Amino acid sequence: MDAKTARIGFIGFGNMAQAMAKGLAEHANVAGDRITACAAHYDKLQASCAALGATPVHTAAEVAEASDLIIVAVKPHMVVDVLAPAREALAGKAVVSVAAGLLFDFYDELLGQESHHLSTIPNTPIAVGCGVIACEQKHSLTCDEWDTFTQLFSPIALIEPVAGNLLSTASAVAGCGPAFAAMFLESLADGAVKNGLPRATAYRLAAQMMAGTAQLHLAEGTHPGAMKDAVCSPGGTTIKGVAALEAAGLRNAVISAVDATLQ
Ligand SMILES: NC(=O)C1=CN([C@@H]2O[C@H](COP(=O)(O)OP(=O)(O)OC[C@H]3O[C@@H](n4cnc5c(N)ncnc54)[C@H](OP(=O)(O)O)[C@@H]3O)[C@@H](O)[C@H]2O)C=CC1
Ligand SMILES: O=C(O)[C@@H]1CCC=N1
User: Fold this and answer.
1) Nearest residue CA, atom 6 of ligand 2?
2) What b-and-e string marks burial along 166-177, b requiring 16 or more CB atoms within 10 Å of the CB?
3) pLDDT tens profile 34-84
4) Is the domain of 36 the same as that of 138?
């Protein structure tokens, strides 16, 4: 399988699948006509496929037949029922799951020990080429399929293999994290609006600040504590804000959020 020509299928075409397809089409040079998808509601699917030049089909088996690499992107509790009728068509194809909590042993049992599968957790920023895909280290893709998968997705996501027992924790940070980060972004803007800044300006400033702070850490590897210290002038305004965040329990709230996703 060649990453330049591989056909990609999505079984389920909701928020996560569309983010991946958009990232591939708009940031990784994957032509829309290489993408096929199915979903529960065909009219809605037609509209979302049209936006990318992708092909809508009615069943998971049709997706499998039309594709070399198939992304399973329905809700975890639906995977068994949706994949069962497509089992034959999936045989010998590369199956990449994004369903939370479904690991190697689950797919080995569902698809058979000869099947080629990989369990992952991506995140929605992949739509703009800034995603993460945490992958279970143990998988049964061939070397060629793994290479194709990484060549396709590494232009739009950091691909991070982790042990199976840590995939849910990685998911809390990378998969759920965009929701937590968006809450921080919104809260920061609320504070600014409360003090008179127009809403749109507040979102623009907060979003660019968050992107820039993350870029600074990624580029220089600076410890987050040192990044904070570099902003806090003695007796200045930032340390007063830091103290207010600590008084409100920011650190404990975030750690509890990670714990909550794992329960
Ligand atoms: N959202 C996220 O940020 C992340 C999600 N995930 C995982 O991605 C998966 C999808 O989540 P998400 O995209 O958020 O959920 P959505 O509800 O947005 O998407 C689910 C998709 O499944 C489709 N579907 C439902 N029933 C069937 C069926 N019988 N046959 C084919 N397709 C069907 C739905 O169709 P229709 O649209 O017509 O209703 C929809 O397109 C989950 O397993 C989740 O754990 C993983 C990491 C991050
Ligand atoms: O909320 C969820 O279950 C999925 C998994 C990671 C992000 N969204």
Assistant:
1) 175
2) ebbbbbbbbbbb
3) 999 999 999 999 999 999 999 999 999 999 999 999 999 999 999 999 999
4) yes
